[in-house]
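All the exercises in this workshop are built on plain-text protein records. The record below serves as our worked example for the rest of this section.
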Amino acid sequence: MEKIQPTFHGSDLEVIADRYHIDVNSIVPYASNVNPLGISPLARQAILDNVDVIKSYPDRNYTSLKEQISKYCGTIPEHVVLGNGTSDLIRLTFELIAPDKTMIVGPTYAEYAKTASRYGSEVKTYMLKNIDDFEMDVDLFLRALNETYDLLVLCNPNNPTGKCLTKDQIAQILTRCRELDIFVMIDETYVEFVKDIDEISSVPLTITYNNLVILRGVSKFFAAPGLRLGYAITSNHDYINASDGKSLLWSINSYASVAGVMFEDEHYINATRTLIQTERNLIYSVLSSRKTIKVFRPTSNFVLIKLLKEEQTASEVFDYCIRRNLMIRDCTDYEGLGEKYIRFCFLKPEQDDDIVNTLLEIV
């Protein structure tokens, strides 16, 4: 019987350490897509200065936190909905919209389809293709939409392909969806890493389109997955009002509330963008010259690679790297990809040198 090689999520460090008999603290997490600079110094100091805040209930309206988020994103506090991480807001959206039929643009994050299934929604995946570099032909996509869909799910920039739709392309899609009475959920988890966020982020479109909700969080760009802080932006009053009754009371902990100063840490934000942009350009330049792999031009803080050697699989490359304590992402379990794709995120320069040199030894 053929041995099935498991795939691992970026957070599965303990599982990996146990399986490969290595020290969990020695693993370099290229699969997690988390900012290598760590948490914002302002957020760290705020938590240290307010450690005793855990003794009290947070403000149930999270007034200060919503104001900080709205200023950071260029919206108004009344349009901000908080959740216990982006995953909670994905769940909330499916609960509020209750779609009979959902279209998801793939290949993408599996949690969208899993959540749709939990809520009894029929799922249709509009699968973008390797032959097109996973780029969307918007005109062709618009023709695939029809009135049988209740919800459209987009990840922008997309995980794992790293591809982006521009704000203008999103506006075309939103206009057609409004005509067809389709609500649109856009996950912008990685948008803060892109070179020009104003060209990609759909936050300004929430003013014009009320069939739109945008999801973000602090796990990746602000390197704070443990805070479990996610936020949605929408002008849809039904969504906002209904979320009050569907969200858990005090679902955001007190530390997440005081750490909201991270949204004001301009030095940290600019340093992150400079680092990621530099590493992204260097890594793409080096790897794209290798003829035995196809490197999809990255726009965010990670890169997707297709292995072109006929006999080589993602699980073999993963195994080669993890035995050197370097944990990349084997993308075999992504619908629409398969055993030929790997992904890794950009860390600090010396760490990026390690993963690039290691990959070049085997691919």
